[in-house]
Specification:
The chain is an alpha+beta fold. Helices cover 54% and strands 17% of the residues. The chain contains 4 helices and 4 strands; from the N terminus they run αβαβαβαβ. It has a 4-stranded mixed β-sheet, with helices on both faces. It is elongated, with a radius of gyration of 20 Å. The N and C termini lie far apart (71 Å).
């Protein structure tokens, strides 16, 4: 049995799909804005923690301006001593966002390449 859709139904389906797409784009823009605000909060908390940070770099989807998922995380690389890094991890864990925090000197080459390619320096001493 073949099902035929009227032009009116097809038009309504297309309009519905367009609305869903617009809502997704709007939701992603809001999420990106919230994530960027959280980056500012995290940088401030990191620096207030007196953790000997010499550099903070944003990388990943936020740095590439490519947030394509509502559960995108925040990728930050920091240069600091190993003993101070654990304090920063604790701060990052309190974030409402998933935060991937890496210490620059111990990051693997794949991460270092991504940081070199797309990283945005947020703080440097």
């Amino acid at each position: 049995m073949t099902m035929t859709l009227s032009s009116e139904k097809l038009s309504r389906m297309a309009a519905y799909q367009e609305r869903l797409q617009r809502e997704k784009v709007d939701a992603l823009a809001i999420r990106k804005g919230q994530a960027l605000e959280e980056v500012q909060v995290l940088v401030g908390k990191f620096l207030l923690a007196d953790s000997g940070i010499t550099k903070i770099i944003l990388f990943g989807s936020l740095a590439r301006d490519d947030v394509s998922s509502l559960d995108s995380d925040i990728d930050l690389a920091v240069a600091c001593s190993n003993e101070h890094f654990l304090a920063l991890v604790a701060i990052a864990q309190d974030s409402p966002f998933k935060v991937d925090l890496v210490e620059l000197s111990t990051a693997d080459n794949r991460i270092k390449d991504a940081i070199a390619r797309e990283g945005m320096v947020l703080y440097e001493k």
